[in-house]
Amino acid sequence: xxxxxxxxxxxxxxxxxxxxxxxxxxxxxxxxxxxxxxxxxxxxxxxxxxxxxxxxxxxxxxxxxxxxxxxxxxxxxxxxxxxxxxxxxxxxxxxxxxxxxxxxxxxxxxxxxxxxxxxxxxxxxxxxxxxxxxxxxxxxxxxxxxxxxxxxxxxxxxxxxxxxxxxxxxxxxxxxxxxxxxxxxxxxxxxxxxxxxxxxxxxxxxxxxxxxxxxxxxxxxxxxxxxxxxxxxxxxxxxxxxxxxxxxxxxxxxxxxxxxxxxxxxxxxxxxxxxxxxxxxxxxxxxxxxxxxxxxxxxxxxxxxxxxxxxxxxxxxxxxxxxxxxxxxxxxxxxxxxxxxxxxxxxxxxxxxxxxxxxxxxxxxxxxxxxxxxxxxxxxxxxxxxxxxxxxxxxxxxxxxxxxxxxxxxxxxxxxxxxxxxxxxxxxxxxxxxxxxxxxxxxxxxxxxxxxxxxxxxx
Length: 459
Hints:
Shape: elongated
Keywords: Lyase, Purine biosynthesis
Structural class: mainly alpha
Number of helices: 19
Pfam family, one: Lyase_1
Low-confidence stretches: none
Mean pLDDT: 94
Protein name: Adenylosuccinate lyase
Strand order of the largest sheet: 1-2
Helix content: 55-70%
Largest sheet: 2 strands, antiparallel
Strand content: 5-15%
EC number: 4.3.2.2
GO molecular function, one term: lyase activity
Number of strands: 6
């Protein structure tokens, strides 16, 4: 058997690439290296802006040409770094050499020794990861999550009055509305999305073991912690002043735990909608030319929700691993985080793919209100709750002598189907006031939804 031409091993880089491509700008190897170049360049500018070690601030034109190293980062730089890393066996050192090489071509050799000045690799890495993850989350992943929430909210408002049989424990239960049930997911997801939006993105810039030792040796008169803080905050990041060689990754643990939490809610949504489709509550809109089954022509399979379910499980497993691994570093530094962090894009990729499928799936379903109403009409026994509650109120008010209303309704309805006629007859024979009796006789399963419709306004 001959070998295939080079192929992507991951489905994220093959079958699903179009859906997750925007993440590659940030969370790919090239995206990380571009951010590393950005950090190195901005650190050079920060040092010279302060005229440290006899330097002078660069002219604006010189700064623009320097910043073009990362703003125009492309295939030439990607190839250059790959060749250099094959020799250095160190990715950050390769980036340092790239910046030095470009400084020479820009006529800035005089400040070449300020490249990567007093930095450990993790100063650059922690900053670059914070930049890339923040941008990926805020520019790509979070907007897609918000789009799913918006689609859900639109459906919730559209179907706020659509009465539906609830199924607690899978059994017929007090009716609700489809809109209210979807609004529950909107409320849950909005809350977690806001937490993710407010998540810290922290970096450190304090040298080999977090002590600024080399900085102080070079110039003990400079307030290096202040210089580092101002530099990191100028990049739009939070500053971690107390670290080992690495930034402790706690902000990443918090982020991935929250992303996993959001994924769990979305997984719940996917399985619920799948079940509603199975019950016939939602009809799926046929897609022209699509095949549901290779042998059963009639089928429209709920593939969007099944794909989302599977990818959320993969993403959740990866987010859990990221959070569990990154919270620990042996002594002042070990390298377990290096390989682990290279999979951040994989975790968010599977999550983004799930979000894309959910957004599409929610736009390809139609509510079958006739099915909902038929289901309700076949389950009049769910009004037993209303009847026994009204009887209790009548007992308290002194208008009834019934001794155990719950047991009375349990005997009538538990494990039995009771229709409208039987319930009406039962209510007419109750020892309760006329007004209460009239309210109960007017009830139907479809009308027994309480404040469900009004609750949709809470999202």
